[in-house]
């Protein structure tokens, strides 16, 4: 072990307990992410005559359901499918942890599709509105991973390498913080600046898919692959394989948006 390596502070994942109910840091990060989305979404709805506060509140509620249900289903399907086949009740074992961003994204997309039927807005219009709300929650979620000392990075000799309690006696990349910066802070800044001016419908959502996909693909080179999966096709991780279609779809969507130039509002 590098003697100069940082030691993960080993923070208790439970902030406090109320009877049998445990209040966890990771859950708090989720709540803070949705609180920010509520505040920022309402600010944007006030500037956009096509959106009302009640409409946005309904969308946020169904988006929350989509994140939780889709995130859990995605994790079980993408990362623990064989175990799930052997133990179907594992799907409901939420205390064991396990959420997938890509599954959560599919869940939010399903919620947006349902919302189109209720409001008459198009799927791309809703996607453009929602996209800038997401990165802050992603970044906070990664901070929650860091506090829990989970999803650590690969071994490194870099001076900021960190030894995690369950990661062996070796310094590792604090890849959770890399993801918090790229998928959270940087992606939020890019989308917030880009969406300040009216863009063609579909462009903001397309940029989100590209930005997240590239960020996740790059960080996965520093993140330790899931032990039960390892590296897969072409030496890529599951996270990278799931991010490639996002980048492709996002690029195609932006090309389509600028080709058709259907007028959109401020996202």
Descriptive notes:
This protein is mostly helical. It has one domain (21-260). It contains 9 helices and 4 strands; from the N terminus they run E-E-E-H-H-H-H-H-H-E-H-H-H. A two-stranded parallel sheet has the order 1-4. Strands 2-3 form a two-stranded antiparallel ribbon. Helix 1 (25-47) packs antiparallel against helix 6 (134-148), helix 2 (53-79) packs antiparallel against helix 4 and helix 8 runs antiparallel to helix 9 (238-260). The protein is globular. The N and C termini lie far apart (48 Å).
- Got a strand count? 4
Global geometry = globular
Mean pLDDT: 88
Q: What class would the helix/strand composition place it in? A: mainly alpha
Our Rg estimate from Cα atoms comes to: 19 Å
- Helix percent band: 55-70%
Q: β content, as a range?
A: under 5%
Task: Output the helix-strand order.
Answer: EEEHHHHHHEHHH
Separation of the first and last Cα atoms: 48 Å
Largest sheet geometry? 2 strands, parallel
Number of domains: 1
Biggest sheet strand order reads 1-4
- Low-confidence region ranges: none
Please tally the helical runs, counting DSSP H or I stretches of 4 or more residues: 9
């Amino acid at each position: 072990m590098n003697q100069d390596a940082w030691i993960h502070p080993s923070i208790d994942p439970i902030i406090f307990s109320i009877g049998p109910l445990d209040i966890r840091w990771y859950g708090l990060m989720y709540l803070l992410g949705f609180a920010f989305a509520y505040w920022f979404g309402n600010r944007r709805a006030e500037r956009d005559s096509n959106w009302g506060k009640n409409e946005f509140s309904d969308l946020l509620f169904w988006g929350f359901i989509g994140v939780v249900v889709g995130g859990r289903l995605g994790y079980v399907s993408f990362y623990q499918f064989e175990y799930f086949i052997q133990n179907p009740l594992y799907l409901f074992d939420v205390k064991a942890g396990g959420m997938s961003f890509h599954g959560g994204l599919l869940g939010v997309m399903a919620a947006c599709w349902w919302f189109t039927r209720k409001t008459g807005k198009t799927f791309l219009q809703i996607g453009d509105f929602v996209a800038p709300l997401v990165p802050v929650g992603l970044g906070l979620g990664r901070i929650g991973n860091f506090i829990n000392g989970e999803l650590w990075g690969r071994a490194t000799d870099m001076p900021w390498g960190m030894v995690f309690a369950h990661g062996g006696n070796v310094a590792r990349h604090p890849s959770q913080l890399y993801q918090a910066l790229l998928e959270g802070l940087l992606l939020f800044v890019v989308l917030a600046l880009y969406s300040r001016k009216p863009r063609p419908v579909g462009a903001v959502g397309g940029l989100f898919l590209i930005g997240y996909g590239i960020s996740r693909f790059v960080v996965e080179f520093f993140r330790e692959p899931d032990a039960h999966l390892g590296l897969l096709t072409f030496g890529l991780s599951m996270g990278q394989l799931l991010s490639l279609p996002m980048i492709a779809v996002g690029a195609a969507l932006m090309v389509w948006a600028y080709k058709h130039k259907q007028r959109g509002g401020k996202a």
